[in-house]
């Protein structure tokens, strides 16, 4: 009995030891589990409350909750189960996290307010006040000052409003605002400097927007010179701006993203430290038309390359590329347009020769002498024709480059002197740079173009656009 009792007591002691050892393992495991950090403020529910995110073979996902360490499963298309678990089980912690996240976002927005929020709205309010407040309008009228209202759909009108406000003396403007009881709209010297930088940065953008929307003049030729001028102007502004240097850098990146194809053809490449995400329009600007069109416009020719900040070697390569593209396009256009005319001429010649042969067929069958038999009716070899055309095109390019008249209609005014380039210009310069002419077709057509009155096809739209842009020529 004593032996049995001793065995039982020893077994009990072993059980106690095993229990204590197992309990110690559980405690250690709980210590290893990550705990919830109340000071952390993540942007999503998953980042804030969950860990060990896993994706299973069936497509579902799972994660462990930091608060209760339970496993939550959900589908791959949403985070609904994660959010539902937190909102139901841990409402108190969820509300605290939401409040902290909202305050974090508000603090960030106050620290990084945009120029539009800081000054654009204030300038817009001053412009509205000049039209709503009789007293303020009278003060401005005495000083011969007018402030146009900005249009939300036209950003260049907002730029024009800012420029008009900057034309007013700061002391005079602030005195007028205080007199009408709007001291909250008073501008400081720092505000004026920032607005001046803003107006200077977007000056070329506004001019390009206005010029490229023209109807009765060539606009496609403005694209390459405008993009290149704006790019180097932004680099200059970035070096000289005191407050808006980061805005200039952002705009430079945007130019590379949108017009990267054109800039690359001019050998203007982005810095290695810039994160460029090419837009869908980037490669479209690699088209030859953007380099050919400025040369055919008398305002530019090759001046936009020569007067740019490109290196001398780059200028030489770019001008040679433009001349080669012009030569190729003019020669190709001559070949396609003359195929039909050559066929017509050949058919007329053969008809004449057949009639002559019919008249001679009644004569006796012997060899007769004929006038001009050495060269009449013989075709000029195509190789000689092509060489003559090539020389003519090269001469036209070199002569047109030396023209002193800087008129956009130069190629049309001297179409007899430059027949090959004129034929190319009629094809190239008719392309609009923006969709403004097409939009104006709809705005001017009125009720006639409504769906319940008529059906507008692609062909009809192109004809209407052509007529509207060239109505002065008809």
Briefly say what this structure is.
The chain has 474 residues and is mainly alpha-helical. The chain has 20 helices and three strands.
Overall description:
The structure is a single chain. The protein is mostly helical. Among the domains are: 19-111, no CATH class; 115-201, no CATH class; 436-473, no CATH class. Helices cover 62% and strands 3% of the residues. It is built from 20 helices and 3 strands. The protein has a 3-stranded antiparallel β-sheet. Strand 2 and strand 3 (71-74) form a beta hairpin. Helix 5 packs across helix 7 (155-166) and helix 7 packs across helix 9.
What strand line-up does the widest sheet have? 1-2-3
Name the average pLDDT.
79
Gyration radius over CA: 39 Å
- SS summary, helix count: 20
Structural class computed from helices and strand pairing:
mainly alpha
Tell me the strand percentage band: under 5%
Order of helices and strands: HHEEEHHHHHHHHHHHHHHHHHH
Total strand count, please?
3
- Based on Cα principal axes, name the global outline: extended
How far the N terminus sits from the C terminus, by CA atoms, comes to: 128 Å
* Low-confidence blocks of residues: 1-31, 109-113, 343-350, 352-356
What can be said about the biggest beta sheet?
3 strands, antiparallel
Give the proportion of residues in helices.
Answer: 55-70%
């Amino acid at each position: 009995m004593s032996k049995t009792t001793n065995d039982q007591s020893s077994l009990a002691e072993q059980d106690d030891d095993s229990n204590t050892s197992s309990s110690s393992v559980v405690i250690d495991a709980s210590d290893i589990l990550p705990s919830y950090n109340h000071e952390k403020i993540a942007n999503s529910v998953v980042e804030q409350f969950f860990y060990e995110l896993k994706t299973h073979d069936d497509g579902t996902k799972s994660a462990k909750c930091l608060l209760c360490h339970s496993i939550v499963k959900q589908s791959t298309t949403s985070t609904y189960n994660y959010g539902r678990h937190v909102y139901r089980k841990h409402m108190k912690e969820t509300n605290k996290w939401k409040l902290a996240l909202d305050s974090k976002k508000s603090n960030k927005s106050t620290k990084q307010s945009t120029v539009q929020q800081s000054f654009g709205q204030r300038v817009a309010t001053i412009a509205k006040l000049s039209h709503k407040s009789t007293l303020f309008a009278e003060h401005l009228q005495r000083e011969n000052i007018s402030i146009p209202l900005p249009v939300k759909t036209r950003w260049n009108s907002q730029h024009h409003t800012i420029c008009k406000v900057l034309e007013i003396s700061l002391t005079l403007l602030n005195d007028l605002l205080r007199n009408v009881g709007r001291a909250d709209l008073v501008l400081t010297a720092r505000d004026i400097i920032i607005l001046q930088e803003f107006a200077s940065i977007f000056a070329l953008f506004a001019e390009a927007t206005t010029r490229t929307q023209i109807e009765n003049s060539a606009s496609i030729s403005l694209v390459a010179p405008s993009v290149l001028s704006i790019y180097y102007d932004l680099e200059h502004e970035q070096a000289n701006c005191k407050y808006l240097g980061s805005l200039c850098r952002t705009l430079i990146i945007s130019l590379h993203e949108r017009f990267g194809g054109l800039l690359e053809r001019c050998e203007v490449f982005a810095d290695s430290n810039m994160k460029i995400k090419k837009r869908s329009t980037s490669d479209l600007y690699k088209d030859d038309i953007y380099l050919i069109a400025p040369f055919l416009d008398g305002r530019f020719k090759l001046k936009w390359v020569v007067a740019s900040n490109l290196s001398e070697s780059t200028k030489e390569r770019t001008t040679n590329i433009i001349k080669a593209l012009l030569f190729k396009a003019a020669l190709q256009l001559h070949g396609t347009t003359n195929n039909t005319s050559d066929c017509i001429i050949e058919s007329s010649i053969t008809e004449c020769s057949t009639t002559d042969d019919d008249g001679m067929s009644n004569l006796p069958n012997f060899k007769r002498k004929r006038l001009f038999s050495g060269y009449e009716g013989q075709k000029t070899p195509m190789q000689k024709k092509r060489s003559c055309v090539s020389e003519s095109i090269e001469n036209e390019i070199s002569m047109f480059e030396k023209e002193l008249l800087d008129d956009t209609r130069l190629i049309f005014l001297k179409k007899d002197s430059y027949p090959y380039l004129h034929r190319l210009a009629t094809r190239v310069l008719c392309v609009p740079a923006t969709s403004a002419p097409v939009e104006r077709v709809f705005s001017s057509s009125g009720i006639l173009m409504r769906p319940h009155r008529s059906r507008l096809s692609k062909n009809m739209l192109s004809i209407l656009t052509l007529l509207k842009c060239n109505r002065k020529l008809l």
